[in-house]
């Protein structure tokens, strides 16, 4: 949605049609309330919708009409069979590719936009070529998406780079050039990087693995900081000022979440195993293991600090999304944390500015989370404000770094006054000023800092 909306916004000469089988989702894209929250997206969609940007469920017609097709279906982790829990399920990719092959009456450039393990483009090519009739050809490109949620519009408008992979043949290069021409409508030429298909596919997994690895590295250091009296923010700052390291993605946290990092690393692990590279697989797996450890470590710290029991205690949880400025909760650290607290029979009062009760309850009752509907009904209350969540709470836990939870946005004196005493704050995102909170009277525990 966001990627193609930005193409339509930047290229008025290109007609962009976004198709989905899900009628409710398309209706939402066509309404005043878009199905996803993303700062700046409304303006872009509202400016071009009905002009050169269309949303429809008429998938077949859109395939027939298009010169270029972005395949942007999801590639969830397989739940059963070979590679279960690690490999990506490519059924939707194959389904979409077969549909294109069946319907096409003219040549198409088919662009692999979904994040897929290496060499998927090859499978798509095989399917398309086996089905191409006389006079029509299919060219495959890989064009991975690097936007992050919450900053999608900015990332798409001013990307660090755009990556386009193609088959190294004259026809491949010609197709690649056509997509380069789309992006250079608004992106400087030198930021559009071209390479072969396989490098492009692998670069996407590699970039996410490297980003997640930085977070797991700083989170591993945060455990040492807590045990020794060092401050993880200071360590991150000291390391990040080395220009070879750089300051970004060194913020210690309760653990990374989101639909991509864990999934992509597990794909890389699976790929390494398939290639008989067990040491490489173990290396990348440890990034995920460290993330799980970080989430558990934080929840254990909560229980330990609250005198080794949270049974019947009210715990206010501020933030449920996997990061700020998004309503997305996929793989959010808050889910693990909340499920653990429920199992310890705490009462969790949750507030998130963009995540509603329905979503929270759905996430907590997903298979594998460890809590069932009855427990969730009994132990979880979804609140309308941070203040409401904190009333009579024994502890407040920051799970997402929303700006509205910062010191200058919430009245922490008012929160303190409404909580049970002693009043505990657990800052899982390092957004609060521990010294000021202590002055108010809070007992403060922050990731990567000793008390
Ligand atoms: C990530 C990548 O950043 C994008 O480049 C990529 O395109 C995207 O995955 C994808 O593959 O689709 P996203 O998951 O939307 O984007 O969000 P991030 O900003 O990367 O944050 C991921 C998680 O790491 C969040 O839970 C965030 O809070 C956490 N994080 C991030 C930290 O704990 N510390 C940091 O320093 C940075």
From TrEMBL:
NAD(+) binds at residues 20, 25, 73-77, 114-115, 149, 260-263, 330. Substrate binds at residues 145-149, 204-208, 244, 251-257, 322-323, 429. The active site is at 260 (nucleophile). GO terms for cellular component: nucleus. One of its GO terms (molecular function) is NAD binding. Its EC number is 1.1.1.22. The keyword Oxidoreductase applies. GO terms for biological process: glycosaminoglycan biosynthetic process. Residues 316-434 form the UDP-glucose/GDP-mannose dehydrogenase C-terminal domain. It catalyses: UDP-alpha-D-glucose + 2 NAD(+) + H2O = UDP-alpha-D-glucuronate + 2 NADH + 3 H(+). Pathway: Nucleotide-sugar biosynthesis; UDP-alpha-D-glucuronate biosynthesis; UDP-alpha-D-glucuronate from UDP-alpha-D-glucose: step 1/1. Belongs to the UDP-glucose/GDP-mannose dehydrogenase family. This is UDP-glucose 6-dehydrogenase. It comes from Modicella reniformis. The gene is UGD1_2.
């Amino acid at each position: 949605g966001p990627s193609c909306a930005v193409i339509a916004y930047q290229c008025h000469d290109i007609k962009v049609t976004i198709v989905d089988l899900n009628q409710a989702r398309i209706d939402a894209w066509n309404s005043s309330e878009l199905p996803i929250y993303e700062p700046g997206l409304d303006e872009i969609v509202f400016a071009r919708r009905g002009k050169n940007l269309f949303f429809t469920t008429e998938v077949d017609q859109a395939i027939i009409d298009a010169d270029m097709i972005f395949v942007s279906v999801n590639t969830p982790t397989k739940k059963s069979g070979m590679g279960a829990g690690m490999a990506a399920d490519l059924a939707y990719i194959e389904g979409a590719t077969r549909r294109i092959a069946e319907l096409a009456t003219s040549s198409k450039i088919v662009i692999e936009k979904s994040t897929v393990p290496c060499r998927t483009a090859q499978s798509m090519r095989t399917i398309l070529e086996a089905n191409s009739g006389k006079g029509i050809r299919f060219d495959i490109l890989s064009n991975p998406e690097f936007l992050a949620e919450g900053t999608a519009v900015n990332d798409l408008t001013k990307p660090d780079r755009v990556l386009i992979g193609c088959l190294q043949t004259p026809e491949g290069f010609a197709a690649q050039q056509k997509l380069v021409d789309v992006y250079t409508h608004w992106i400087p030429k030198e930021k559009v990087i071209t390479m072969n298909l396989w490098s492009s596919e692998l670069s996407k997994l590699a970039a996410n693995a490297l980003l997640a690895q930085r977070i797991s590295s700083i989170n591993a250091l945060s455990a040492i900081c807590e045990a020794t009296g060092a401050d993880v923010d200071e360590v991150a700052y000291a390391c990040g000022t080395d220009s070879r390291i750089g300051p970004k993605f060194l913020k210690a946290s309760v653990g990374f979440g989101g639909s991509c990092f864990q999934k992509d690393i597990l794909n890389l692990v699976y790929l390494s195993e398939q290639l008989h590279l067990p040491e490489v697989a173990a290396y990348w797996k440890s990034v995920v293991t460290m993330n799980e450890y970080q989430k558990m470590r934080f929840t254990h710290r909560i229980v330990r600090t609250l005198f080794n029991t949270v049974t019947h205690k009210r715990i206010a949880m501020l933030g449920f999304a996997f990061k700020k400025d998004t309503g997305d909760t996929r793989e959010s650290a808050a889910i693990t944390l909340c499920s653990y607290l429920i199992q310890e029979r705490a009462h969790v009062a949750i507030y998130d500015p963009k995540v509603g009760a329905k979503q929270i309850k759905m996430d907590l009752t997903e298979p594998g989370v460890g809590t069932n509907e009855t427990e969730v009904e009994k132990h979880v209350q979804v609140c309308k404000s941070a203040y409401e969540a904190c009333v009579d709470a024994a502890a407040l836990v920051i799970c997402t770094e929303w700006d509205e939870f910062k010191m200058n946005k919430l009245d922490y004196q008012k929160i303190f006054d409404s909580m049970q005493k002693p009043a505990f704050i657990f800052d899982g995102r390092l957004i609060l000023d521990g010294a000021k909170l202590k002055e108010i009277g809070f007992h403060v525990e922050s990731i990567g800092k000793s008390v």
